[in-house]
Design a protein that fits this description.
It is built from 17 helices and 16 strands. By secondary structure, it is α/β, with parallel strands linked by helices. The two termini are about 25 Å apart. The protein has helices at about 10-20, 90-100, 125-140, 160-170, 210-215, 220-225, 230-245, 255-265, 335-355, 385-390, 400-405, 415, 445-450, 450-455, 460-465, 470-475, 495-500; strands at about 40-45, 65-70, 105-110, 145, 175, 180, 190, 190-195, 200-210, 225-230, 250-255, 270-275, 290, 295-300, 305-310, 320-325. Strands 1-16-15-2-3-4-5-7 form an 8-stranded mixed sheet, with helices on one face. Strands 8-9-11-12-14-13 form a 6-stranded mixed sheet. The protein has 2 domains: about 10-335, Metallo-dependent phosphatases (Purple Acid Phosphatase, chain A, domain 2); about 355-515, no CATH class.
């Protein structure tokens, strides 16, 4: 799910200003010349002084800026379930706009990793494919100079991904020194690119770990990407070419961090090496200095929470500076064009495609055979006080929060619906507000499982045992973390929140009618009705 509380945005005039600056900005100034023995690259604190009027004050007065992002892993924007969520393409666009308002020429490159494996993505395969398309469009809007190729981005299908790149990437090129595609996609790929940030010429190349590509279970991979070299067989020639044409040489490595470190040591001509991350947030905000301080090895983390920002200085008199920037609420400013793309067009596409209604559904293996979701109204006959207590919780209001979300159409986003309805992705569970209105919100059965058989036979001990959920079991199985994960509920601990939903002992079962049972209404859609 994408996350964060986004604020209203301002005028189209700022978008026009941004589009005039984003990307490869040329300048009549003479190119930067590096000194024969470069000084030790400078690092900066992650947060600039509070009194500064500059956006990234710790970079000083650079003549050019490079922004590096990567490993977005499907996180297009914060969803807003937690106040302190960071990241998102809208905030990235705002950062770029503001740098331009400070008259800083800016180049932008991306390591790749726009989506996560569709087999494990919350929204399923079809939503992941649509998300990839809009992530590519966002890079084009940012005028990305170079994009690394991640094997994860190819998991919707190699031909599908390359087709989306071809249709939506605009002037951006996939940079892959060790990959040669077939002729149909040759125009998409470059072994390297030269981009400018003011007077600074930046030579950018990238490599992809061959093992990650060769491991793709896609029969079209070999035909569409027929030539995959070892990085060591491709980089010497590319580096020599970049050194003759650019002021600073940059290598992006789509592969394990140890591969990036090894290549950085083997090819000291690179001034900057960008590595993939082991953790969502980098453990060290400063670059690792290699080759006697000449090479900066950096990682910007996962999920698009952070970007790396490099400052370059006049005549090469000062070494580049680096700062890791967290895309927090500070960047809830303009970005009208990106907001329209991500919040409006993307979700309108999800709605039109019927992503939520057509999600691939499955049986719930832990439920008794034949059990179906019946909704909270079926529970209140025997558990009236428990249901009344549930109505006072935020779980009961979960679907309503989507309808009142300032971001449009979140109720058509499968990543949001998963945690705001009951039984989504499970046969007999949530389909839509029209077809399954009895499953609005986060109800009893999301924790206890489909309850039709228990409703029919309330005194059946085996059925009661199957839907029982003790505090100990919920904590041990970490069931709540499906929704209360590190993004949505960073401080969540079950034992701390359990008191808010605790309902043991609220109801009295002495009335004989609660032991008779009732036939559950056949209100779930017929598709998949035979299973739980």
């Amino acid at each position: 799910m994408t996350h964060g509380d986004l604020r209203p945005w301002i005028s189209v005039s700022l978008v026009i200003l941004a589009l005039a600056y984003v990307g490869c900005t040329s300048s009549p100034t003479e190119p930067i010349k590096k000194t024969a023995t470069p000084p030790t690259p400078a690092t900066t604190p992650a947060t600039p002084p509070a009194t500064s009027t500059k956006l990234i004050a710790n970079l000083g007065d650079p003549v050019g800026v490079l922004i590096v992002s990567g490993e977005r892993n499907g996180y297009m924007e914060p969803c807003g379930c937690s106040e302190d969520q960071s990241g998102g393409l809208i905030r990235l666009y705002d950062l770029v706009e503001r740098l331009h308002q400070q008259n800083l020429p800016t180049a932008f490159i991306d390591l790749g990793g726009l989506i996560k494996n569709p087999a494990t993505a919350r929204g399923g395969f079809e939503q992941t494919k649509i998300k990839l398309d809009y992530a590519i469009k966002a890079l084009a809007l940012l005028k990305c100079s170079a994009l690394g190729l991640s094997a994860e981005d190819l998991k919707v299908g190699v031909s599908e991904t390359l087709g989306l790149f071809l249709n939506s990437l605009g002037e951006t090129r996939i940079v892959a020194a060790n990959i040669e595609p077939n002729e149909a996609y040759a125009s998409l790929f470059r072994p390297s690119v030269i981009t400018r940030s003011g007077p600074v010429r930046l030579g950018v190349t990238a490599v992809t770990d061959p093992a990650s590509l060769e491991g793709l279970a896609d029969p079209e991979r070999e035909a569409l990407l027929p030539k995959i070299l070892r990085p060591e067989d491709a980089l010497p020639k590319v580096l020599a070419d970049l050194e003759s044409k650019s002021d600073y040489q940059i290598l992006m490595v789509q592969g394990p961090p140890d591969l990036a470190r090894r290549l950085a040591g083997a090819y000291p001509g690179f001034d900057i090496v960008v590595s993939t991350s082991e953790f969502p947030d980098p453990l060290n905000h400063d670059p690792e200095l290699l080759n006697g301080g000449k090479t900066m090895l950096v990682t910007v983390g996962q999920k698009g929470k952070n970007v790396g920002v490099f400052g370059f200085y006049k005549d090469g008199e000062q070494a580049p500076k680096y700062q890791l920037v967290t895309l927090n609420k500070r960047y809830d400013g303009p970005a009208t064009a990106m907001k329209k793309l991500i919040q409006t067009e993307y979700r309108e596409t999800l709605k039109a495609a019927g992503i939520v209604e057509n999600i691939l559904r499955h049986d719930l293996a832990s439920a008794p055979t034949g059990s179906r979701f019946v909704g909270v109204d079926a529970c209140k006959t025997c558990h009236p006080k428990t249901v009344e207590h549930w109505k006072t919780t935020k779980h009961a209001e979960a679907y309503e929060t989507l309808l009142h979300d300032p971001k449009p159409n979140t109720q058509y986003d499968a990543e949001c619906i998963l945690c705001h309805t009951t039984g989504f992705e499970i046969n007999s569970g949530w389909v839509s507000a029209d077809k399954t209105p009895h499953l609005l919100g986060n109800q009893c059965e999301n924790c206890h499982g489909p309850a039709s058989r228990h409703v029919a036979e309330p005194d059946n001990r085996e059925l009661r045992k199957a839907i029982a959920l003790t505090t100990e079991r919920a904590d041990r199985t970490r069931q709540c973390l499906q929704c209360h994960d590190e993004e949505n509920s960073r401080e969540f601990e079950f034992t701390g929140y359990e008191s808010e939903i605790h309902h043991k002992g609220l109801d009295d079962y002495s009335d004989p009618k609660v032991h008779k049972g009732a036939a559950a209404q056949a209100v779930a859609p017929k598709a998949g009705a035979s299973g739980p």
